[in-house]
Design a protein that fits this description.
By secondary structure, this protein is mostly beta strands. It folds into 2 domains: 159 residues, Jelly Rolls, CATH 2.60.120.200; 106 residues, no CATH class. The chain has no helices and 15 strands. The protein binds calcium ion (CA) (2 copies). Pfam families: MAM (PF00629).
């Protein structure tokens, strides 16, 4: 059984992973690496396997929903609670994802609001365990969400504290169709007292409907502002998507100046060091083929504005022939 998988570049830096598991029989783990593109390295180190009383890896800073609900509980005041499911177990009237975000397979679990089961306007909510106050700079909660289909519903995140009376502060909201993609969201948590985070889904009028979340991660420090991505941590809200001719799809890679490869910039623009990261179009070598290769990076949907500005630092080297790159926007 595959319990964890990553594919494509993870940036040239060490990344941490933890998995919770249970087994009534002796078990073995197998770590398998498979060659993908035409260059790259995969390394692992510092493995620890140990029993834990709560069945989870402390401290739980990342939640894949693979083994458990990571301590999330139904919010008592809500109309219904969310459930941990796999993509393969959805009914036809769900618009949820076929695969989870962690593994990208039908075996991967995610948290589904089961919106198809509930009447329009009903409210389903889950809350975290009570968390310790944050540092003054806050913490960044990153998550992935899936909302596909017209009038699918609404996803809200609140921070609840217990001073005086219970108070819920709205932190983040998204409504309606966000396309057939897992989308990235992030929100800064700041509280000088113990708090809980609440994930709330409100049922929309769409006939096929669901809202799902996966891969919650909490990092120290506040989140970068919306619309800003320096590619230091990850791709922020940007996702590799299909070009007009899907056959020509190549993904943007996430590299640093230390990455191997032809024409890789030696320094990134953010940090001006070899340690900084960037998105890089790394065409697959086809010595005998002139197959078209298009890498397309798509942002999240931004709020409507009268006028706005897109700034980007770009770099192109090599290629004597007619490669091109362009920005497209649509409303
Ligand atoms: Ca998952
Ligand atoms: Ca950078």
């Amino acid at each position: 059984m595959i319990t964890w998988i990553r594919s494509g570049t993870q940036g040239s830096k060490w990344r941490f992973a933890d998995l919770t598991f249970k087994s009534s029989k002796p078990i073995q783990f197998i770590i398998e690496a498979m060659v993908g593109g035409n260059q790259g390295r995969i390394a692992i180190t510092d493995i620890m396997v140990y029993p834990s009383e709560s069945g989870s890896c402390p401290p739980e800073r990342e939640c894949t929903f693979q083994g458990s609900l990571c301590g999330l509980l139904p919010q008592p005041a809500a109309n219904f609670s969310w459930m941990r499911i796999r993509g393969s177990s959805q009914p036809a009237n769900s618009s949820g994802p076929a695969t989870d975000h962690t593994l990208g397979t039908e075996q991967g679990f995610y948290l589904s609001a089961h919106l198809w089961n509930h009447p329009v306007g009903a409210r389903g909510a889950m809350m975290t365990a009570v968390m310790e106050p944050t540092a003054s700079d806050g913490e960044c909660l990153m998550f992935w969400y899936y909302m596909e289909g017209s009038e699918v519903g609404e996803l809200n995140i609140y921070l609840q504290t217990f001073e005086n009376s219970r108070e819920s502060v709205p932190l983040w909201t998204q409504k309606g169709n966000q396309g057939k993609h897992w989308r990235h969201g992030r929100v800064t948590l700041r509280s000088s007292t113990p708090y809980q985070v609440i994930f709330e889904a409100i049922v929309g009028t769409g006939e096929r409907r669901d809202i799902a979340i996966d891969d919650l991660t909490v990092l120290d420090g506040h989140c970068p502002p919306t619309g800003v991505c320096d590619f230091e941590m990850d791709f922020c809200g940007w996702v590799n998507s299909y070009p007009v001719n899907p056959q020509s799809r190549v993904d943007w890679d996430w590299l640093s100046g230390e990455s191997e490869g032809h024409h890789v910039p030696l320094r990134d623009h953010t940090t001006n060091t070899a340690l900084g990261h960037f998105a890089f179009f790394n065409p697959i070598s086809h010595p005998k083929s002139d197959k078209e290769q298009v890498a397309r990076l798509e942002s999240e949907t931004m709020d409507a504005v009268e006028r706005a500005c897109l700034e980007v630092w770009h770099y192109a080297a090599g290629w004597l022939t007619d490669s091109e790159y362009s920005f497209v926007h649509w409303c």
